[in-house]
């Protein structure tokens, strides 16, 4: 597990930006950690890479750089930070102990999420059918997530006071979260047959279950915020009651009352 611990240290380094601003542990630091883990995998296994495994590492770098870059842009160029005040913890209200706990736990999650690729490299599994299938699924998720973020930006520039229900948002209310889940589903699928022993299986399962939980928790926060901002709008109420919140064509329209989704 020496390699896993090295990658965990890289995640800790990348996500340490959260000590400057608490929410960055799970936003900008998240993307930076995934990108640095991908770079670390390329460096650690540079003599054993195949086309498929190299592409998986590169996909982590692309994913992380896109996410962190988008979040930095959003924080600096939009009113998002002002809107989020009161909804996420600010630095002044968080003790050092709490920051330390979220830093370590989040970094462990990032290392677990990427562990199927780490284990494929450690076990010398190379490129097989599941590696290719996982790559294709992850690439589709990354494309969907990026497209959803762009569409939301365009819609908000055109009509900043209205909820977004165009483009991908016609199919699902959180297409960016849906794309994120698809991305990590691809990563998990790619490792189904290469995990050796209970420890590797537990790591892969915890990482996948963890990010799915986090995405549903994010959808709950978004729903609460949108209800606050647009709840009096009949068009929003119709949109909310007819458009699934997380997965297209799956009739789950609200998670607001699921208080166990506290991520």
TrEMBL record:
For this protein, the parts annotated as crossing the membrane are: 44-73, 94-112, 132-150, 171-193, 199-219
Which UniProt key words apply to this protein? Membrane, Transmembrane, Transmembrane helix
Q: Which domain of life is it from?
A: Bacteria
Task: Report which residue ranges the record marks as coiled coil.
Answer: none
Record's GO cellular component terms:
membrane
User: Could you tell me which InterPro entries the record lists for this protein?
Assistant: UstE-like (IPR010721)
In Swiss-Prot or TrEMBL terms, this protein is called DUF1295 domain-containing protein
Q: Which organism is it from?
A: Bilifractor porci
